[in-house]
Write a structure and sequence with these properties.
The chain is of the alpha+beta class and about 190 residues long. Helices cover about 40% and strands about 35% of the residues. It has an eight-stranded antiparallel barrel.
Length: about 190
């Protein structure tokens, strides 16, 4: 009887692990790693203590495996993002190849500019040229991509997600704690 219980437990744990590993639709490698790690950890934890509280050791193994799997998968996601050079065309639409000039912003900036113009290139970079009141020009190049109605702008050290919409020849950007209206130049 005990041998049958051990076999049933092993089969049960294996089925749960398989379902956890294969049954999840994961969007990132971090999520996939967490699912695979949970399944593997549950199996190892359950098999390691078949004589006592196998469920507790399986659960502990699943938790540890999920954490380790997520860390490994998340590092892979980071490497992919760093190695990614090409931007897909649909990630730059509808801004790719357009130029916009800021006509208003809320709240007002502490250091007002005479002009702020952003050119969204089709290669996934946005070049912003700021001219201050004394005529000095500053140019900043950042990466961007669009997901739905979210404009994601990033540079090493920061990422900014903003909501945007285009109304005619106006681009309205909502930063969450402020907004800007830009006029289409080209």
């Amino acid at each position: 009887m005990k041998k049958e219980n051990k076999a049933m437990r092993t089969v049960g744990i294996s089925i749960v692990c398989l379902a956890l590993t294969l049954g999840t639709g994961c969007a990132t490698q971090g999520q996939t790693g967490a699912a695979a790690g949970a399944g593997t950890g549950a199996l190892i934890g359950g098999l390691a203590n078949m004589h006592g509280a196998w469920g507790a050791t399986a659960l502990l193994g699943a938790g540890i495996g999920a954490g380790v799997g997520y860390l490994i998968g998340n590092e892979e996601d980071k490497k992919d993002a760093q190695n990614r050079r090409a931007v897909l065309e649909e990630e730059t639409r509808p801004l790719g190849g357009t130029t916009w000039q800021v006509i208003s912003s809320m709240p007002k900036t502490q250091n007002p500019y005479k002009s702020v113009v952003s050119h969204f290139r089709k290669d996934g970079t946005v070049v912003t040229t700021k001219t201050n009141m004394h005529g000095a020009v500053e140019t900043v190049t950042e990466s961007y991509r669009i997901v739905g109605s979210t404009l994601i702008i990033n540079k090493p050290g920061y990422v900014e997600n903003t909501k945007f919409k285009i109304e005619g020849n106006k681009l309205i950007i909502d930063y969450g704690n402020g907004s800007a209206v830009l006029q289409r130049v080209s």
